[in-house]
Amino acid sequence: MTPETIADVLAEAFGADPWPSPLRRFTGDKAHLISLLKKEMRGKQEAETIKTGLILGSLVLGEAAERVFEATFRTKLSTSEIQLLDQRQSRSDTDYKLLNGDGRQLYRINIKFHGTQFRKAREMVGLDPDDCFPLATYKIKSALDKQDQEHLPYLFVIVTGTEISAEAIQRNMPGVFLEAAHLGKKIIRSGKRALEEKIVARFIDSESDRFQEVIDAINEARWYVISARRAEKLMKDNLFDRVFALRMRSFNRAYRNAELDMHFSFSQDMMPLEEFLKTIGKEGHFKVVGMLERGTI
After folding, report:
1. End-to-end CA distance of the chain
2. Where is pLDDT greater, at 73 or 78?
3. What is the pLDDT of residues 3-19, one digit of tens each?
4. Quick one: pLDDT at residue 136?
5. Which of 193, 207, 234, 288 is deepest in the core (most CB within 10 A)?
6. At 159, phi and psi to the nearest 5?
7. pLDDT tens for residues 224-283?
8. CA–CA separation, 210 vs 52, rounded Å?
9. Is residue 215 over pLDDT 90?
10. Are 173 and 196 in contact (CB under 8 A)?
């Protein structure tokens, strides 16, 4: 719909009646009204493009994190009996599966990128902002349901401590990629995520130096693991302390569109990824499976 068409609809709707503020000053002045509408529509388009850019930035971060994870897995795991199976193309809640030498499935892995700190973490959940990771309670439940159905331990791998963010990538991404994704999604009716992934792949190929900067930053990040079973146990033990939404009146008003999160401590609740991989090599994957099932990791 064009600004001219919208102006006609407004004029017909109000007729000779006074228009509400701030449109009142445009009564009888269609040209100025059209100018205002064009400005508003440009602003909306800019906001939508920024939103699309944040999605692209998140996908770039995800791709970089997964590449670093694969490299870490290959270099830090001191056994050749474990294989890493890439599941990312399924676009599910599973990024990788670990298999033994016979191809038997051992663990299911979901990689999470931790960016923005919870500034009120000390006040709300008793944790330092740099030692706090929020995980939606429904994701813990979903992970455990899948684990119990398949008898396959579910493991969250978290990346934290990097200054690279989706916002920073979006701000530095050439406009052609942002516009291509934004306008492309307006044209097509399905396959929007596939379109975004194709554009991200093109960005990575054509802007290899910028992508390498993201890789380098994530290489300096801290990596942790926590099993779904341990996440559930900690949530039950610390339900009202760490899920502050349950004790907060009018939570939805104060935190509009926020998820119901359980907050974990990196230092107290999780195991560093490198230590986890060393444990597999030293203790063997059968023992580690038992630790994951019991929630000790």
Report:
1. 55
2. 73
3. 777 777 777 776 777 66
4. 93
5. 288
6. -105, 130
7. 999 999 999 999 999 999 999 888 888 888 887 788 999 999 999 999 999 999 888 888
8. 19
9. yes
10. no
Query: Secondary structure of the chain in the HEC alphabet?
Result: CCHHHHHHHHHHHHCCCCCCCCHHHHCCCHHHHHHHHHHHHHHHHHHHHHHHHHHHHHHHHHHHHHHHHHHHHHHHCCCCCCEEEECHHHCCCCCEEEECCCCCEEEEEEEEECCCCCCCHHHHHCCCHHHCEEEEHHHHHHHHHHHHHHCCCEEEEEEECCCCCHHHHHHHCCHHHHHHHHHHHHHCCCCHHHHHHHHHHHHHHHCHHHHHHHHHHHHCCEEEEEEHHHHHHHHHHCHHHHCHHHHCCCHHHHCCCCCCEEEECHHHHCEEHHHHHHHHHHHCHHHHHHHHHHCCC
Two structure tokens written together for 115: 């960016």
Structure token pair of residue 184: 């492309």
Cα torsion angle, 74, 266, 136, 162, sign: negative
Residue type, 226: I
For 120, the token pair is 């009120």
Across the chain, mean pLDDT equals: 86
Q: Read off the pLDDT band of 26 (50, 70, 90).
A: low
Alpha carbon distance 93, 246 (integer Å): 26
Structure tokens given for 9: 């609809």
Q: Rounded to two decimals, what is the model's pTM?
A: 0.80
